[in-house]
Amino acid sequence: MKAKLIEEQPPTYVLIFETGDEIVSDLKRFAKEHRLAGSSFKAIGALSDAKVGWFNWETKRYETAADIQEQIEVLSLIGDIALKEGELEIHAHMVVGKRDGTAHGGHLQEAHVRPTLEMILTESPEALHKEHDRESGLALIRL
What we know:
It contains one helix and nine strands, in the order ββαβββββββ. By secondary structure, the protein is mainly β. Strands 1, 2, 3, 4, 5, 6, 7, 8 and 9 form a nine-stranded mixed sheet that branches. The chain is flat. The termini are far apart.
């Protein structure tokens, strides 16, 4: 992955992922290196595979909705980076398109880039903090 700061205020980066890069792990590493505690991002590109999930309200867990093992287009990838108990947490949703024109989407669990993914990441002036929500079982951003 290559990265460049393209705007000072608010700090805005362009991240270019390359073939074989795993989006979540590489983004988390970048966020730690740059101490990004309140960011939003959007991206488009293409992947060799992806796993997306959905939140099961009954079990209070994310489950895999689609495990796609073929070349796909990233139609939309959006998300945020926030702190949960002092650790960075990435929350992203993605919609991908297959060769036949069908789309699959959900909570991004894992995805490998092929040949590129172009992401714009903007840091907010204030850190975002997530706290455990008893009703849902999720860590949610609290203001």
